[in-house]
Amino acid sequence: MHVTLVHVRVKPGCEAEFIAACRANHLASIHEPGNRRFDILQDASDPCRFILYEAYASEAAARAHKATEHYLAWREAVEPLMAEPRQGVRYLGLYPE
Fold first, then answer.
1. 22-28: which pairs have CB atoms within 8 A and are 24 or more residues apart?
2. 89 CB burial (10 A radius; 0-12, 13-18, 19+)
3. CA gyration radius, the chain
4. According to the model, what pLDDT value does residue 97 have?
5. Contacts 24+ apart (CB under 8 A), 38-47
6. Which end of the chain is more exposed for a tag (fewer CB within 10 A), N or C?
7. CA 61/CA 76 separation, integer angstroms
8. pLDDT digits over 22-79, tens only?
C-alpha cells in the first residue's frame, strides 16, 4: 500500500476554511479507485497543524489522485491559507494488507 502523510501548517485564523476545503477533498477522494483511507487530522495542541493521511492501493492510484478535479480545487483553495509549504512524507503501508 502507498501511504503519504502530508504535514500542513495553516495561518492562524484560517483553520475553519482549511477544514472545509479538506472535507470536500476527503468526500471525493474516498470514492476514488484504489483509495484505502483519506483521513484529515488536526493537532490537539496546535490547531494550525494538520496531517492528511492518504492511503492508496498503489503508487499509480496515488498519482491519479493528483490529477482529479477535487484535488486540484483543494490545492488551489488551500495554497493561500498555508503558513509554509506542505510536506508529503511517503511510507509503505504494511498492515492492513
1. 22/50, 22/52, 22/74, 22/78, 24/70, 24/73, 24/74, 25/70, 25/71, 25/73, 25/74, 28/68, 28/70
2. exposed
3. 13
4. 79
5. 42/15, 47/15
6. C
7. 21
8. 999 999 999 999 999 999 999 999 999 999 999 999 999 999 999 999 999 999 999 9
Dist CA 67 CA 36 (whole Å): 17
C-alpha cell at 85: 509549504
Which residues touch 59 (CB under 8 Å, ≥6 apart)? Answer: 2
What fold, for 2-92? Answer: Alpha-Beta Plaits (3.30.70)
Q: How far from 60 is each of 23, 29, 48, 94, CA to CA, in Å?
A: 23, 14, 31, 17
**Beta-carbon count within 10 A of 25 CB:** 23
Helix (H, G, I), strand (E, B) or coil at 81: helix
- Tell me the residue type at 93: G
The H helix count followed by the E strand count for the chain is 3, 4
